[in-house]
């Protein structure tokens, strides 16, 4: 059950953060511009996200609410939180790391179901060939996030290798 919502501007559009008593439930970009509105319960989360967009934060220290998610999704999301800022991994790298090289599509599905992008950095997952693939908010947004993290290495390109 959502108990708090925050709206705030980011360099890439308005973001809506939702939280329950257990932690952050979702981070979403909105199509419409909303006035900044941050309840006390979400001040730390919004501050950490703003620091990320200002290149002052490389990782997050927040409680997350994954209730309702499947065990495999949780394993993938937990792994994603270990992918360092500015680095990328492939779907097959994650499948291999989780012990099942054939689970590449399942890893892709878990990424697609990630309700907390940026904090659970699914934008850091790319195709085995180095190309950008799949992101709920489009490949342009994925490229912007990777460009934010690696501005000198990742400028207007579609392959990381």
Quick summary:
By secondary structure, the protein is α+β, with helices and mostly antiparallel strands. The chain contains five helices and five strands, in the order βββααβααβα.
Descriptive notes:
The chain has 161 residues and is α+β, with helices and mostly antiparallel strands. It has helices spanning 43-53, 71-80, 91-97, 104-112, 139-149; strands at residues 4-10, 13-19, 24-29, 89-90, 125-126. A three-stranded antiparallel beta sheet has the order 1-2-3, with helices on one face. The chain has a two-stranded parallel ribbon with strand order 4-5. Strand 1 and strand 2 (13-19) form a beta hairpin. Helix 2 (71-80) crosses helix 4 (104-112) and helix 3 crosses helix 4.
Name the descriptors:
single chain; 161 residues; alpha+beta; three-stranded antiparallel β-sheet; two-stranded parallel ribbon; 5 helices; 15% strand; disordered C terminus
């Amino acid at each position: 059950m959502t108990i708090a919502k925050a709206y705030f501007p980011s360099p890439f559009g308005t973001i809506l953060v939702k939280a329950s008593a257990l932690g952050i439930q979702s981070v979403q970009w909105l199509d419409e511009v909303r006035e900044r509105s941050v309840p006390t319960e979400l001040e730390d989360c919004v501050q950490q996200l703003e620091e990320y967009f200002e290149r002052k934060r490389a990782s997050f220290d927040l409680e997350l609410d994954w209730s309702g998610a499947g065990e495999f999704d949780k394993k993938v999301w937990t792994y994603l939180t270990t992918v360092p800022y500015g680095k990328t991994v492939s779907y097959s790298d994650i499948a291999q790391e989780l012990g099942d090289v054939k689970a590449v599509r399942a890893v892709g599905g878990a990424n697609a179901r990630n309700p907390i992008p940026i904090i659970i950095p699914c934008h850091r997952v790319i195709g085995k060939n180095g190309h950008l693939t799949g992101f709920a908010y489009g490949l342009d947004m994925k490229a912007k996030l990777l460009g934010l993290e690696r501005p000198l290495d990742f400028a207007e390109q579609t392959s990381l290798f």
